[in-house]
From TrEMBL:
SUPFAM superfamilies: CheY-like. PANTHER family: RESPONSE REGULATORY DOMAIN-CONTAINING PROTEIN (PTHR44591:SF3), STRESS RESPONSE REGULATOR PROTEIN 1 (PTHR44591). This is Two-component system response regulator. Signal peptide: none annotated. Keywords: Phosphoprotein. The modification 4-aspartylphosphate is found at D71. Pfam families: Response_reg (PF00072). Residues 22-139 form the Response regulatory domain.
Length: 149
């Protein structure tokens, strides 16, 4: 998948793709955000937090984000609705979103996440190293500078 130029990705953020781009963690429970942030510390990327889908949407339009890790079940705009909105915007269409859910394995949820463009879906409780592997790969692929001709 071709990487869009930085200016079309995150307006106002002004940062070219690169390893300094942040990870955005989205969950309406502070304890879950703390656990996610702690698990992703080994990646060495800046971490941004959002406690709602609305806050996540604002953040990705203001800050350079490499990957979003988002809970599915949240009040108001849930993770699936937020994902759908992100993938309808030109500047965030290719942004990888990894969904996290505490609900039991649900093939309908997985199918809907796939149709909406989720980069993956993980079930809680999360294995911290598996989470790091997924997020590192997604962030590195997204921020990779396209080859020059």
């Amino acid at each position: 998948m071709p990487v869009p130029p930085p200016s079309s990705r995150v307006p106002g953020a002004g940062s070219p793709p690169g390893p300094g781009q942040a990870l955005l963690l989205v969950d309406d429970h502070e304890d879950n955000l703390f656990a996610l942030e702690h698990a992703l510390t080994p990646l060495g990327r800046p971490v941004l937090r959002a406690t709602s889908g609305e806050q996540a949407l604002k953040t990705v339009l203001r800050e350079p984000v490499a990957t979003v890790v988002m809970d599915v079940v949240m009040p108001h705009i849930d993770g699936l609705q937020t994902l759908d909105y992100l993938h309808r915007l030109d500047q965030t269409r290719d942004l990888p979103v990894l969904l996290v859910t505490g609900t039991s394995r649900d093939n309908r949820l997985a199918q809907l996440a796939y149709k909406l463009g989720a980069a993956g879906i993980l079930l809680k409780p999360l294995d911290p190293w598996a989470l790091c592997c997924h997020v590192r790969t997604l962030a590195d692929l997204y921020t990779r500078t396209p080859p020059t001709a």
